[in-house]
UniProtKB/TrEMBL annotation:
InterPro entries the record matches: BACK_BPM_SPOP, BPM1-6, BTB/POZ_dom, MATH/TRAF_dom, SKP1/BTB/POZ_sf, TRAF-like
Protein name, per record: BTB domain-containing protein
Phylogenetic placement of the source organism: Eukaryota, Viridiplantae, Streptophyta, Embryophyta, Tracheophyta
Pathway assignment: Protein modification; protein ubiquitination
Gene3D superfamilies: Apoptosis, Tumor Necrosis Factor Receptor Associated Protein 2, Chain A, Potassium Channel Kv1.1, Chain A
Coiled coil: none
Pfam families, sorted: BACK_BPM_SPOP, BTB, MATH_2
Organism: Panicum hallii
Length: 369
């Protein structure tokens, strides 16, 4: 007789929980007497309000819900689930009340003991009050009534007991800049060369064209024939700036600089801004402007400000002007460091700043004169 082996029993568990969302809506029916005579079965409706992710409204039937003679002596209110605003079927607990406008006290007119299922086929529930009773009560004041509706939406969730979690594999950050950085170092695929003073730089023209519309025009546009063949000379670009420009093109970041406070590196950043403007590298231009704005001082603010007008750096110009305005006690050094033409440039630029008040500008210019 063959023996049968029993494997391990798989055991799971789950929990059913009910979550609720509560809301209250107040519907004021102004001009109550004007709504009388609207007709049986006709209603006025509140604005749609949302509870539990579902849209609801309150209807009021001044002349009864139906044309039956027995209903025409009643005023009816009706809680409605608005179609197209949420789930096909919703369970909710609710009540409908009349509010005394003088005392704020309310009278519950309808409060079912159990939750009700609302759906497109059965969208609402109603209460009745005899018209003579309503019109003789304190709930009708100033020819208006106030209906209050409290809704609690029930959301049932099935929650499985968590199994042993599998290890979540974290994707590493993008290494695209690293790969392109290696391509920059090896010059692999380079098919164009640039001569900047005594240094020669080689790069793939397709990479340059993809990052700069100016390079694209020079290497693939009408100027291509002039730039085909030998080395392209660049006479008005700083070698360090061009090297950093290539680094930014390949890696979308500037190369590391050990001392951004130093005059030499600050000058390189200015050359970088000029190169970024020349080759329409707007993000690189903003990066350079950000660095310069954080390194402003009395000695550098004038030359930096002059740079902003020449190369259309509006945000950097604003930073320079704001620095001048806030440089209390530094005006004597500013006067010694800046030519008269630069002061005039400051005045012109200051007028474009909404943050600078006229009296502040006058105070600065008086001290600079």
């Amino acid at each position: 007789m063959a023996s049968s082996s029993q494997g391990p029993v798989s055991t799971t568990a789950s929990t059913c929980t009910a979550e609720t969302a509560r809301g209250r809506h107040t519907f004021v029916v102004a001009g109550y007497s004007l709504h009388r005579g609207l007709g049986a079965g006709k209603f006025i409706r509140s604005a749609t309000f949302y509870v539990g992710g579902q849209g609801w409204s309150v209807r009021c039937y001044p002349d009864g819900h139906t044309g039956k003679e027995s209903n025409q002596d009643f005023v009816c209110a009706y809680l409605e689930l608005m179609a197209g605003t949420g789930a096909a079927e919703v369970r909710a607990v609710y009540d409908l009340r009349l509010v005394d406008q003088l005392t704020g006290e309310s009278k519950v007119l309808f409060h079912p003991a159990a939750p009700r299922a609302f759906s497109g086929e059965s969208p609402g529930a109603r209460w009745f009050i005899r018209r003579t009773e309503l019109e003789a009560s304190t709930y009708l004041r100033g020819d208006r009534i106030v209906i209050e509706c409290n809704v609690t939406v029930i959301v049932t969730k099935q929650e499985a007991e968590p199994q042993t979690p599998c290890e979540i594999i974290q994707a590493p950050p993008s290494d695209l800049p690293v790969g392109f950085g290696k391509l920059l170092q090896t010059e692999e695929g380079a098919d164009v060369a640039f001569k900047v003073q005594e240094e020669t730089f080689r790069a793939p023209r397709v990479v340059l064209a993809a990052r700069s519309p100016v390079f694209k025009a020079e290497l693939y546009g009408p100027l291509r024939e002039r730039n085909d063949g030998g080395v392209i000379p660049l006479e008005d670009v700083h070698p360090g700036a061009f090297r950093a420009l290539l680094h930014f093109i390949y890696t979308d970041s500037l190369p590391a600089m050990d001392d951004l406070d130093g005059d030499e590196n600050r000058e390189i950043v200015k050359h970088l801004l000029v190169a970024a403007d020349r080759y329409a590298m707007e993000r690189m231009k903003l990066v350079c402007a950000s660095i310069l704005s954080r390194r402003l001082d009395v000695e550098s603010v004038s030359t930096t400000l002059a740079l902003t007008d020449r190369y259309s750096c509006g945000k950097l110009k604003d930073a320079c002007i704001q620095y001048i305005i806030s440089s209390n006690g530094g005006y004597e050094e500013l006067k010694r460091a800046c030519p008269v033409a630069t002061v005039e440039l400051w005045e012109k630029a200051s007028k474009s700043l909404k943050i600078v008040h006229a009296e502040q500008l006058e105070r600065v210019l008086d001290q600079l004169d």
